[in-house]
Structures are given as C-alpha cells and as structure tokens.
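Lest this sound abstract, we think one record worth quoting, the chain in one-letter code, the fold tokenised, each line plainly labelled:

>
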Amino acid sequence: MEEKKEVEIETVSVDDTKPEVSEDKQTEIIEQLNSKIAELNDKYLRIAAELENTRRRASLDIESVSRNRAMSVAEKILPVMDAVNAALKHNPDDEGIKTMERALENAFAQIGIVKIETVGEKLNPQFHNAIQMVDKPDEKTPTNTIIEEMQTGYMFGDTVLRPAMVVVSK
C-alpha cells in the first residue's frame, strides 16, 4: 500500500498596491524635475548660442584674413601701376604701355581696388595727403581745392590702401 504523506503549505499573500506617496511629496518631486528640465534647457540654449557665436567669429576671421591678404597683394602691385603711369607720362602714345595700364586697371577693378578722385575735389585728409600748397590758379578756384595729383591714391572697398599725394590751392 501506498503511504500518504501530508505536506503543510504556507500561503503568502502579495500586496500589489504601491506605497502611497503623499501629495506634498509628489509636488516636491515634480518641482525638482521641472527645475532640472529648466536648468538643462538653459544649458542647451547657452551652448547653442556659444556655438553660433563661434561660427560667426570664425567666418569673420576668415573674411578678415582673406581681405588682409588681398590688401597686402594690392599694396605690392601699386608700385607697378605707378611705374606704368610714369612710363605713360613720358611716352603717352605708346600702345604697349596703354595696354598694360588698362590690364592693371581691369585687374584692380576685379579685385575691388579703385582710384581716389583728386583734381578738382576739395581736400579730404582721409583720402588725400597735401604735399604742397600753391596760390590759386584763378579766382574761381576755392581754397583747399586739389589742383594737381602727384601720386594716385587707391581704395580697397572702404579702406584707404594709399592716400593720394596732391597739390592744394591756398
């Protein structure tokens, strides 16, 4: 015969309910989380602004370096233009010199270099360097009017590469 054994089983109950958090505690947790969100959002906005400023500064730096390099090259070419102008004064009918002058002027125009207007203009120390003052050639000429250009001045954009050397009326 089979023997029957009796086994005693303990019952365990599982409580599915979550521990109750007081309403004050919930509000405190929500406030902490909102505060953390606001802090992280502020950090994000600051970093995004700093990145945009860095991009802008880098762009301006690149533009500035490029502009300075172009101005440096232009300043080195100005004596060549002066030599061509001097040669043209000595031999105004030479087609070769006229061609070189036009080629240089076209190159200057493409780069953005322009001559400073002088003869007949009023002296402006920002653009002109008066190297001599002479009596007025006639009574109609106002004082401080440029009568003669001794050396051409040039601008690169809004920057004076070299002021014009001029003779001015007294």
